[in-house]
Design goal:
Helix content: 55-70%
Number of strands: 0
Strand content: under 5%
Low-confidence stretches: none
Order of helices and strands: HHH
Number of helices: 3
Radius of gyration: 18 Å
Largest sheet: none
Shape: elongated
Mean pLDDT: 90
Structural class: mainly alpha
């Protein structure tokens, strides 16, 4: 059964078979699916996922840091100890999810570089 775009985003599975792995490491796409043999040469997620991650995670963490600062006025080291790991983990998870989502959309729509709809 072919996975949905959201399933590919959440699990990082192959967009065709849903069983193979899409990534060979944390954020590096694999060369091909080990299960169905789909060549991942079409993958070109570009900077789109990174832009969304920067804006969304930045907005969330800034709002939370300002709320914390207004509520209890902690010292600077508390902000550093709290927000640096949160930003790092949220960014990596969000970037992996959004890259997989973008790749699944490319596969589902058969998008290619430099081509408009025909």
């Amino acid at each position: 059964m072919t996975p949905t775009v959201v399933q590919v985003g959440i699990t990082g599975c192959c967009p065709r078979c849903g069983k193979g792995r899409l990534f060979s490491s944390v954020l590096e796409p694999a060369k091909s699916c080990v299960n169905c043999g789909l060549d991942y040469g079409f993958i070109d997620s570009g900077d789109g996922p990174a832009v969304f991650v920067i804006l969304i995670v930045g907005f969330f963490v800034t709002a939370m840091a300002m709320t914390l600062q207004s509520a209890i006025d902690p010292p600077l080291w508390v902000h550093m100890v709290l927000w640096i790991p949160i930003v790092t983990l949220l960014s990596i998870w969000s970037l992996r999810f959004s890259k997989a989502l973008m790749i699944a959309l490319q596969y589902k729509t058969n998008a290619k570089e430099g081509e408009l709809g025909k």
